[in-house]
Design goal:
- The complex is a heterodimer of chains A (251) and B (528).
- Helices cover 42% and strands 12% of the residues of chain A.
- Chain A has helices at 2-18, 32-45, 47-50, 67-71, 78-84, 93-111, 127-135, 153-156, 159-167, 226-231, 237-248, and strands spanning 176-181, 187-194, 198-202, 208-212, 217-222.
- Chain A has a 5-stranded antiparallel beta sheet with strand order 4-3-2-1-5, with no helix packed on it.
- The two termini of chain A are 56 Å apart.
- Chain B has a domain at 1-39 and 72-166: Beta Barrel (Thrombin, subunit H).
- Helices cover 4% and strands 39% of the residues of chain B.
- In chain B, strands 1-30-31-32-33 form a 5-stranded mixed beta sheet, with no helix packed on it. In chain B, strands 25, 26, 27, 28 and 29 form a 5-stranded antiparallel beta sheet that branches. A 4-stranded antiparallel beta sheet of chain B has the order 2-36-35-34, with no helix packed on it.
- The longest helix of chain B has 14 residues, at 2-15.
- The two termini of chain B are 32 Å apart.
- The chains are: A alpha+beta (251), B mainly beta (528).
- At the A-B interface, α1, α4, α6, α9 and β2 of A face β14, α2, β27 and β28 of B.
C-alpha cells in the first residue's frame, strides 16, 4: 500500500513538467446536492481506507493532494483509475460524478481553511482571575467599568470578537492632537492626517485646520488607545484568556 | 501612422541593441537592468546628480497611469497595481502587472508597446517584474507561464510552463538572468505543494534544472520532517528574486513557509528547506549551503526577503557577507561563501522566541504557536517586513528595512493529527511602522525613523544613493527622502496613494530620474 502512495506522490511531482496548457483552466464547480450524495458514496466505498477527511491513512493515499483527482473533471480521471486499481469498486456513472463533487468540495474546503468552520472556543480562562487582573495589575478599571461602559459587553459580542476587541479596540475615536504654532493660539481637535511634514485636524466646532510641521509648530498627540497599544507588550496569553472569560460574564 | 512610427523607432534604436550582459555586473547608472538594479540586492545607486544639497529642487518629470480592463491585475476592482520593480535598458523602461508588460520611454513615460498575455487563470495577486537577456524580455504569468518577448516590439518569442495550475500553483516572481539561465520562482500556498526554483535556457525556454525546497529522502536534512509524505507536500515557495555573486558563482534566495501553513502539528521538526536562505550553483541547481531563519514556522513568515550581498570587515578580517532582514523580525548576517553564521539580532522587538540557538537560528517558543483559543504574537502574519526590498549603502555601511512592529492573535482551527492547507490564521491587530537602519557588523539599530500615525505597515521598497539619500514610502502616500546617516526627512512628494514597489533611479543624457509606483501609476522625478 505504501507503494501506491509513492506512485501517486511521484505523479504529483512529475506533473508540472508534463502538463501542457490546453484549453482555459476552470476548476470543477461543486454541485452541493451532488456532493451530499457523493458523501454517501464515499462513506460506503472509500472511507474505511482513505479516512474520514479523505486525507489518507496508513493503508491508502490522500485524496485531497492526489494529482489525479486535482486534474479530474467529473470523473474523467477517477473513473478509469477505479477500474484500473485493484480492490476498488466500479461505480455507476452517477455515483462517480457525485463522488467527484464530494471530493472537490473537500478540496475547496481545504484550500479555503484559513477561516474556521466553527468559531474556536476562546473561553478557556478563569473569570475570577480575569476580574482580578481587570481591577488590579491590568489597570483596566482606571478607564473602564464593568457596570458602566462595559455593562452587557458579554451580550454584545461573540467571545472571539470580544477577545479581538479587547486587544485591538477599533479606532472609533481618532487620535487627538494639540497644535501650537509659534505665532498663534493652540488648537486642539481630532487628527485628520499626520505625517512627517503636515498635520491637519478638526476642532470641536468642525472647523478644519492644517499646518506645515517644523521647529516652530509644536504637536502633541493624545492617542486614546495608547494604553491598549502599550499593554500588548505586557499581556500574557493567560491574562488575555482570563480577562475575556471575565468580560464574557458581563451580561 | 503613429503606432508604426513608434514601432519603427523602437526597432531602430532600442530593439537591436538589447542588454549588454556586462551591465548586470556593474552598479546601475544609465540603466536599471534587473529587479534589484544589479546582482547584489543592495538597491544602492552610485548616482549623485540628485543629492542632499539640491534635493529641494527634485520635481515631477512625468506621470503614467496604467489602465487595464477586465481582469484583476494585482489589485481589486479591475485596477492595476504595480508591485514590480521596472527595469530600464537603453533608455526604455519595461514594467509589468499580472498578464501585462509594457515598454515605455524612460525619459517621458510614453508607451512604446504593450503586451497582454491571454490568461487561463491563477491568482492575480501581483507581479514582481521582468528580466532581460540581450534583446529578450521575460516575465511570469499567474497561469504558470514564463513568457519571452522581443524587447523591440513586444511580440512573443515563446512561452513555457513553469508550474501547474491544477495543484494551485501560480507565478508572480520577477525572473533573474544569470549568464544564459533564466531563473524562475513559483507561488501558491492554498494546498500543500512543494516550492521550487527553476533554470530555463534563455534562448529556448527549455528547462535546465529544478531545485525543490525539500531535501532528498534519506539525507540527514530529511529527518527534519516526520515523513516523506509531509516533506513532499511541505511548501517553501520561492516568492522573491535571487541575488548572485559572480566570483563565487552562487545565487541566493529565500524560501517561504512550510505547509500546512498554520497547523504545524503534522510536520514536527524544523522542516528544511522551507524558511531558509539558500545558496545554489546557477549552472547545476546544486545546493552549496543553507541557513534557516524560521525553523518549523507556523506563522506564515516566509524567509524570502532579499538576501543582500556586500563585503565588510568582521573582527578586522575582510568577509564576503550576506544579510537578510527576515519577516519574522530577526536580522541575519552570514558568510556568503560558506553559509557560516556571523550574527543574529532582532531588528524590531518580537515575542515569539526563546532566544537563539547555537547555529544562530531563533528558537520558537511553543507557547507562541497558534492555539485554538489564540496566542498573541508579534510580528503578525504580514511580518516585521514583507516582500518589498530593503537597501544597503556602502557609503554608510548600514542596512535599511521598511519595517513594522505588529501584533495579532494566531488561532489554530484544525487540530487533526494530519491537517492540510492552512488550518488556522491570525487576526490582526495593531502595528507601528518605521524605517530601521541596522549596522550589519553589530546588529544594532543605528537609527529608527517611526512613520507618524497608527496602523498599517509601509509596503514600499527602499533605495539608497551616493547622493546621500534614502528613498522610501511612508504609511500615508508620501515618497520620502531620508538622510541615510540619521533618518531625518529631507524631502517628500505626496502621491495619490502609498508606494507599492521599490524605487529605482537611472541617468539619461545628464538627467538623473527617480521612478516609483503607487498603485496603477508610475511617477518620475528629476531636477529641472
Amino acid at each position: 500500500m505504501r507503494r501506491l502512495s509513492w506512485a501517486i506522490a511521484g505523479v504529483t511531482l512529475l506533473c508540472p513538467m508534463l502538463m501542457g496548457q490546453a484549453g482555459p483552466y476552470e476548476r470543477q464547480k461543486v454541485d452541493v446536492a451532488a456532493a451530499k450524495r457523493g458523501s454517501a458514496v464515499y462513506t460506503q466505498y472509500c472511507i474505511n481506507c482513505h479516512g474520514a477527511a479523505a486525507r489518507g491513512t496508513e493503508t491508502a493515499p490522500d485524496l485531497i493532494r492526489s494529482s489525479l483527482l486535482l486534474k479530474d473533471r467529473l470523473g474523467n480521471e477517477l473513473g478509469p483509475a477505479l477500474k484500473r486499481l485493484a480492490g476498488h469498486n466500479p461505480l455507476t456513472s452517477e455515483q462517480l460524478v457525485d463522488l467527484t463533487h464530494f471530493l472537490k468540495q473537500q478540496l475547496e474546503g481545504t484550500a479555503r481553511n484559513r477561516n474556521p468552520a466553527v468559531p474556536p472556543n476562546v473561553l478557556t480562562g478563569d473569570a475570577q482571575k480575569g476580574r482580578a487582573y481587570f481591577e488590579g495589575a491590568g489597570e483596566c478599571a482606571k478607564c473602564h467599568s464593568a457596570t458602566g461602559d462595559l455593562a452587557g459587553v458579554g451580550k454584545r459580542y461573540e467571545p472571539m470578537d470580544l477577545q479581538q476587541r479587547f486587544l485591538f479596540p477599533r479606532s472609533t475615536k481618532p487620535q487627538l492632537a494639540t497644535v501650537t504654532p509659534a505665532a498663534g493660539p493652540a488648537v486642539s481637535g481630532e487628527v485628520v492626517k499626520i505625517d512627517d511634514f503636515d498635520i491637519s485636524l478638526t476642532d470641536a466646532s468642525g472647523q478644519y485646520h492644517a499646518w506645515t510641521r517644523g521647529p516652530n509648530v509644536r504637536v502633541e498627540i493624545n492617542d486614546p488607545l495608547r494604553q491598549h497599544h502599550e499593554m500588548l507588550d505586557r499581556l500574557t496569553d493567560q491574562d488575555i484568556h482570563n480577562v475575556v472569560r471575565y468580560l464574557e460574564t458581563l451580561k | 501612422m503613429k503606432p508604426l512610427l513608434i514601432l519603427t523607432t523602437a526597432l531602430c534604436c532600442f530593439g537591436q541593441a538589447g542588454l549588454d550582459p556586462a551591465k548586470l555586473l556593474q552598479p546601475p547608472t544609465d540603466s536599471w537592468p534587473t529587479y534589484n538594479g544589479d546582482y547584489s540586492g543592495r538597491r544602492f545607486s552610485p548616482l549623485k546628480k540628485i543629492n542632499q544639497s539640491n534635493i529641494g529642487g527634485l520635481t515631477l518629470a512625468w506621470v503614467r497611469r496604467t489602465v487595464v480592463a477586465g481582469r484583476q491585475a494585482g489589485g481589486g476592482n479591475n485596477a492595476a497595481v504595480i508591485k514590480g520593480t521596472p527595469i530600464v535598458i537603453n533608455g526604455v523602461m519595461y514594467y509589468t502587472v499580472p498578464d501585462h508588460a509594457w515598454a515605455i520611454d524612460a525619459r517621458t513615460g510614453r508607451e512604446i508597446w504593450h503586451y497582454e498575455w491571454p490568461s487561463k487563470g491563477g491568482w492575480h495577486i501581483g507581479n514582481r517584474g521582468a528580466a532581460a537577456w540581450r534583446d529578450t524580455l521575460y516575465f511570469e504569468t499567474p497561469d504558470c507561464n514564463l513568457v519571452a518577448l522581443d524587447m523591440g516590439n513586444g511580440k512573443e518569442r515563446w512561452h513555457t510552463s513553469i508550474c501547474d495550475l491544477e495543484q494551485f500553483y501560480y507565478a508572480s516572481v520577477a525572473p533573474i538572468v544569470i549568464r544564459e539561465h533564466v531563473i524562475t520562482g513559483v507561488s501558491g500556498d492554498d494546498l500543500d505543494i512543494p516550492g521550487y526554483i527553476e533554470s530555463h535556457d534563455a534562448r529556448t525556454g527549455k528547462l535546465e534544472w529544478r531545485w525543490y525546497a525539500h531535501p532528498e529522502p534519506g539525507t540527514p536534512e530529511a529527518k527534519t520532517w516526520p515523513s516523506v509524505e509531509a516533506m513532499m507536500h511541505g511548501g517553501g515557495m520561492t516568492w522573491v528574486p535571487s541575488t548572485y555573486d559572480p566570483a563565487l558563482n552562487l545565487m541566493y534566495f529565500g524560501t517561504g513557509n512550510p505547509q500546512p501553513v498554520i497547523a504545524g502539528q503534522g510536520r514536527a521538526g524544523s522542516n528544511l528547506y522551507t524558511e531558509s536562505i539558500i545558496a545554489l550553483n546557477p549552472d547545476t541547481g546544486k545546493l552549496a549551503w543553507y541557513f534557516q531563519p524560521s525553523p518549523h514556522d507556523t506563522h506564515d513568515w516566509d524567509a524570502v526577503q532579499t538576501p543582500v550581498l556586500f563585503d565588510a570587515d568582521i573582527q578586522a578580517k575582510p568577509r564576503k557577507l550576506l544579510a537578510q532582514a527576515s519577516r519574522n523580525g530577526w536580522f541575519f548576517v552570514l558568510d556568503r561563501a560558506t553559509g557560516e553564521h556571523i550574527l543574529t539580532s532582532e531588528f524590531v522587538k518580537t515575542n515569539w522566541t526563546l532566544g537563539v540557538d547555537a547555529k544562530g537560528q531563533p528558537r520558537l517558543n511553543p507557547a507562541k504557536q497558534p492555539k485554538p483559543d489564540g496566542a498573541l504574537v508579534s510580528p503578525n502574519q504580514g511580518g516585521a517586513i514583507n516582500w518589498p526590498p530593503p537597501s544597503y549603502s556602502p557609503d554608510t555601511g548600514l542596512f535599511y528595512a521598511n519595517a513594522a512592529r505588529a501584533w495579532s492573535v494566531y488561532y489554530l482551527y484544525d487540530e487533526d493529527d494530519k491537517p492540510e492547507g492552512w488550518g488556522g490564521n491570525d487576526r490582526s491587530g495593531y502595528s507601528e511602522a518605521m524605517v530601521q537602519a541596522i549596522d550589519p557588523k553589530t546588529g544594532q539599530i543605528r537609527w529608527s525613523h517611526k512613520w507618524p500615525g497608527n496602523g498599517g505597515g509601509a509596503r514600499s521598497g527602499l533605495l539608497s544613493t551616493a547622493g546621500g539619500l534614502l528613498f522610501a514610502g511612508d504609511t500615508n502616500a508620501n515618497l520620502v527622502a531620508l538622510d541615510p546617516a540619521n533618518g531625518n526627512p529631507l524631502w517628500h512628494a505626496g502621491l495619490h496613494g502609498p508606494l507599492t514597489n521599490g524605487p529605482i533611479t537611472y541617468e539619461l543624457d545628464g538627467t538623473q530620474y527617480l521612478v516609483v509606483a503607487a498603485g496603477d501609476t508610475l511617477y518620475a522625478f528629476a531636477i529641472r
